[in-house]
Amino acid sequence: MNFSEETKDSIRRFAREQAGRHLSSAELSYFEQLGRKSGQTKEKLLKQMAKFKLTSDQTMEARDDLTLYMSDYVADLMEQGHTEKEALRLAKQALASDSQSDQAADLQDKYMRYYLDRDPAVDETIGLYYAGFLMLGLVLGIVGGIFLALYVFPDRFWPSLIFTSLLGVLAGLACGMLKHASTVSKK
Amino acid sequence: MLSSQAVSGIDNLSEMLKGVLEGMILQIISKEEIYGYEIVKRLNGLGLTGIVEGTVYTVLVRIEKNKLVTITKKPSALGPPRKFYTLNERGREELALFWEKWAFLSERIEYLKQDGSGKNEL
């Protein structure tokens, strides 16, 4: 069935607006990931660029799909006796993807997949890294504090010890966080 | 076969359909190579008129994203190539699981209907 240019334009515009919403946000977030990983090597950067290109292709493909699907639907409605304008209005109403129930179902799906994919061994490993780094930091802090108190501030033993111990704990916590981030991103 | 008049008289059918629409679509795809809107027509043929057009597209996107189908692109008169779907191995497994769940659920619902109370174990 042939549509007027106005209807074709309207379908194309609708597909451009709505196609991205039908894809999950996870598939559109590679640009953000690219930004976060800016410190990585050129090879890794190129891989991310390839992923971004893929995402872009997916969005284009989704637009084409929605355009065709909507055209079929409009043609079907016209065959049922609706005017072109009315058919277009009904199709837009039916195919808009911004309803709260769609978003809720999508979110539920994402959370379910997230929890199903979680591996208890990874959580245990992360916990052990935190504990290990904290203990290491504390020990190094205490040792550093003793040296500082003995050779630099002999009249302020306890303040020096407490200060360096706190620094050690903080450094351990920071290392734990970095390892946590690295483990999660590898997973 | 159900008539569309009979079905449209039932409220909240779309809510009930949400849980089973994916399985129904997988079943339709399992029979032959088919494109998106043709699936809508098949569902309309079952009497599900007016309640599936909007949701079938979303379900198709999900099915594709979950890699349950193999896609073949063919030229279309409307411009962009048209996607035709066939079920792959993963899709067949998902469909078998759907029918298992359906058998379990329908058996218990039917039992509840006959028994009336649900007090007696099946």
Notes on the structure:
The complex is a heterodimer of chains A (187) and B (122). In chain A, 83% of the residues lie in helices and 0% in strands. The two termini of chain A are 49 Å apart. In chain A, helix 1 crosses helix 3. Chain A has seven helices and no strands. By secondary structure, chain A is an all-alpha fold. The model of chain A is unreliable at 28-38 (pLDDT under 50). Chain A has two domains: 5-99; 120-186. Chain B is built from six helices and three strands; from the N terminus they run H-H-H-E-H-H-E-E-H. Chain B has helices at residues 4-8, 13-18, 21-31, 36-45, 53-65, 89-115; strands at 34-35, 69-76, 79-87. In chain B, strands 1-3-2 form a three-stranded antiparallel beta sheet. In chain B, a hairpin with a 2-residue loop joins strand 2 (69-76) and strand 3 (79-87). The model of chain B is unreliable at 1-9 (pLDDT under 50). Chains A and B meet through helix 3, helix 4 and helix 5 of A and helix 4, helix 5 and strand 3 of B.
Mean pLDDT reading of chain B: 83
Named CATH architecture of chain B: Orthogonal Bundle
Indicate the overall shape of chain B: elongated
How many structural domains can be distinguished in the coordinates of chain B? 1
> Based on the structure, what is the oligomeric state of the protein chains?
heterodimer
Unreliable segments of chain B (pLDDT under 50, ≥5 consecutive)? 1-9
**What's the level 1 CATH class of chain B?**
Mainly Alpha
Spans of chain A of at least 5 consecutive residues whose pLDDT stays below 50 are 28-38
Intertermini distance of chain B = 30 Å
Radius of gyration of chain A: 28 Å
**Could you tell me which chain pair has the largest interface and how many residues each side has?**
A-B, 24 and 19 residues
DSSP strand count of chain A? 0
Number of helices of chain A: 7
Structural class of chain A: mainly alpha
How large is the radius of gyration of chain B?
A: 17 Å
